[in-house]
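Researcher: Please generate the 3D structure of the following complex. Treat every line as part of one assembly.
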Amino acid sequence: MIDNLYMPYLMRIERITYEAPGVKTFMLKFVNEVDQDKFSYKAGQFGEYSVYGVGESTFCIASSPTRKGYIECTFRQTGKVTNALSDCEEGSIIGFRGPYGNVFPIDEWKGKSLLFIAGGIALPPMRCVIWNALDMRDNFKDVTIIYGARSVKDLVYKEELKDWELRKDVKLVTTVDPGGESPDWKGEIGFVPTIVEKIAPSSKDTVAIVCGPPVMIKYTFPVLAKLGFADENIYTTLENRMKCGFGKCGRCNVGKVYVCKDGPVFTLAQLKELPDEY
Amino acid sequence: MNIDKRLVRKDSLEKLFDILKQNSKTIYAPFLKNGKTSFRDAGSFAGISTGYIQTSESSKDIAFPRAEKILDYSKSKEGMSVKGTDPENLPDVILWGVRPCDAIGIGELSSIFNWDYKDEIYNNRLSKVTVFGFSCNKSDEYCFCTSVGGNPGNTAGSDILFTLLGEGGDYLAEIITEKGLAVVGLAQNLFEKSDISGKEKFLAEVSVKFNHEDIRLKLDKFFESKQWIEESLRCLGCGACAYVCPTCACFDIQDEAHGKKGSRVRCWDSCGFSHFTLHTSGHNPRNVQSARWRQRIMHKFSYMPERLSVYGCTGCGRCSRACPVDMNILEHLISIQEVTV
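Model: Done. Output below.
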């Protein structure tokens, strides 16, 4: 047999968690143990998840590499493949190719404070980094998570938000867009950039990791600049449409940069060098 | 290896064809049908086209088929079975009659499929192919191989390059690679030792229209130019340019389901299509045709040279010939060269 780059691993859906309207998390385990044994990845990488007969879809690996024996992905039901995935039940077999792409340089961040800023369905790509950092918590100073969604019901990982809320070594700030609050909502009300400005986390020895819808990112970067964050200390992860995941199919590039190979993780300093095609 | 020059007599070409057939080679050669010259499996020597300037489509599908099955799956009560493509039974292929601008394109295609991750499905197909290039003795106004580092008698990419030596009908055969040598080994007596030199006088004249290095440097500062909009206003986004291009490699991956069985297929795509980069959310990073036309030119003349050290254009001119609205890549490249940036 020749080496087939496009051949997915067979994965069994061990557990399905309902996160928010249209949003689910799959816990996936390798059907073949040998695949599990040789598989490894780092926070920030992504994969191609497939329903046989429907197609492949690209998402990050949402679980931390410090948690062994499984991977997780969280997706919103939007297109053909995510709808087919959403129809799958626990025990179903799906395909997974990966890991692809570069990683968040967590080891370089040791000794610093971490500021996570996420909006909506963009918490999943950050969740792997958050748990990766929390599983080696002693290596970092302050850990702050600012997370917002359109409404209370749109917040994902509700159980984990509770965990982070209770932890003394994590500062969690949750917010919902004005009008999205419920009667018993105790978090902030306001758009993510506004809340970042209000909380005003220190930029001293701090790395900011930002992920969210384009408009949130656009308005968050200037706030971080005002707080004194250098472009080199602001990280994000890009999404572009992909098919192969390994630099051949030709659609995820932004200028000469392949999101699938050179990214998906970029610093703001790197983004500023790129044309506006993402 | 050093290029070995031999003489192949006019009537030896057919004998060569027959010997290759006897040796179980599959021969893909150009045939004229309905005004188009296309490569197809040649049953016999008779009817193989010779007078074409350029085949209507490139020969890239010999290693990069329009639709390549990459796996088969079947679902049953017992579970899921998935089997990767089985390339064991690929025939040995002689690609006969390829112009030098297509032959050199194979190398450009290979660099896409082999930078970083190696695409062994592509490599395996290519390993079975022996390329018989045929030099050009005529050209048209669309040809510009000499502006992108090629020429009508370029040996790059061919395993054997045949050059017609005038009206006598004999050919100079340049044996370029070990693969070429292996074919000669099957028909030693047809490749006569010879001291022919000066094939240039038998080649088409293709004047240099622009300097590709100049274009590459200019493109670095050209991203925001209004020229992209002006040049692409009439672009229909039909993708014909990518379809006929010898180096366009962008592809899609689609599943084909038939009940509980099906296949996953890698198929040609084009950066000219509006949905090529469209996100599920509705956001499209290249949301206008001018951005897509710019991607096509930038990819070939800026990104590929920088990332892969090759240009993504061989100057074959097919995209201009195929364009239904007469967009001409050569005219656009010349206009970029003329701009002061």
